[in-house]
Amino acid sequence: xxxFINAQIxxxxxxxxxxxxxxxxxxxxxxxxxxxxxxxxxxxxxxGMSVCIPTYMLAGGxxxxxxxxxxxxxxxGIGNIIVLVxxxxxxxxxxxxxxxxxxLARSSFGILGxxxxxxxxxxxxxxxxGIQTWIGGEAVTSLLKLALPVLxxxxxxxxxxxxxxxxxxxxxxxxxxxxxxxxxxxxxxxxLLIGIGLLLWAYNTAGGFGPMLSQPGKFDTIIGFxxxxxxxxxxxxxxxxxxxxxxPDFSRYAKSQxxxxxxxxxxxxxxxxxxxxxxxxxxxxxxxIFGEAIWDPVALISRFxxxxxxxxxxxALIFATLTTNIAANVVSPANDFANLSPKHFNFxxxxxxxxxxxxxxxxxxxxxxxxxxxxxxxxxxxxxLGPIAGILICDYFIIRKRNLSVxxxxxxxxxxxxxxxxxxKAIFALLAGVIIALIGLVIPSLKVLYDYSWFxxxxxxxxxxxxxxxxxxxxxxxxx
Length: 480
Hints:
Elements: H1 11-15, H2 39-50, H3 53-65, H4 69-97, H5 101-109, H6 115-147, H7 157-175, H8 178-206, H9 209-213, H10 222-239, H11 241-246, H12 248-251, H13 257-290, H14 297-301, H15 307-329, H16 331-340, H17 347-360, H18 363-366, H19 370-399, H20 424-442, H21 447-451, H22 453-470, H23 473-479
Helix pairs in contact: 2-8, 2-13, 3-13, 3-19, 4-10, 4-13, 4-19, 5-6, 5-19, 6-7, 6-15, 6-16, 6-17, 6-19, 7-15, 7-17, 8-13, 8-15, 10-19, 16-17, 19-20, 19-22, 20-22
């Protein structure tokens, strides 16, 4: 604990800030007494978040897109090892200073400009909230059809299932996250048991791992494979590009840097690869069993003939998706909206905004096919989040040498005010990183820029921010 003493801001420091507009209890620095997360907690966090339906669908989507089992697992493994780097780097300031993501962003974007990356991240979280809600709604719909077969005849039944599950999420948001915390520890085991159950079913029905994993890839040429692999790899990185930004929301509770580094390294890649293997193997087996790749586990479970097994599986999916959704997709945007106006927004209000926006994003369209999910959704928002990650990492590690004035992060009269609260250089670097990816979207010959959107945006914004800020670096370090 002692290593954090010099990084802490005291109650006296906070009380000396004249304008309380930029701080509330949700985004204030954590105290030493709140630093309770060890290596196990971070590993468990990542196991819990990795073992989810979108992970399964991510792996299944690669099989449906034409990869064989080892190509899909290799793509997922490489992507998660890559994204682990920004996760660990961006977690560092959260652990050292006890600050959440939107407050960290004030250092590079300005105390008002930080709302740009915070709301960008919040918008993506709203999309993920909608996706998880649609998945949970599918499970509710299947359960309703099982109980009342007549509902299968009506086109509005999926909408009823979706809104019922959405309402269930809203209920627990209003009640507060503590009302569902006791269920969170069961979410990952529920899904893990379902996944293992599907794997055993696929093993027995398809005739063992031989037939399951013998399905060849659909790519006849190396060029064809690489055209699919490149955007797929970006999608794998994009899957956790969201958490690579707001990981300070969790690492601010770490006991030490060692805890967050080891915990994330031991938790993320193994959990993603293991649960992805289940998705890969079962989806491959569906080609043998049904003659088509079924990448949606809810749709697959609904095909089973045993009503009891189907019912238990769907109920488990509903509860597990509910707890995962609130933990992974409400906490972060709640903090982001609080950063917008700490005086007016809290967890409940931020959560309700997330829930409403999750409907407006129309998640059913994002899950219409694996192409839309991976190449449209994951790769698309990577072009926005990659540049933000590049700017945050450059600012903290290169420009400021891991030194921040915590008091100034909450004070409009501090060193992070820049030009009326906005750092124009960071905004310019962000726009450049986003535009370079969009160029690849509109110009076919430069499509590689979009396919590698997280990488190209990260690199360009990192370099441009460093060039723009480097001449003022000595003055910045002196102020901090």
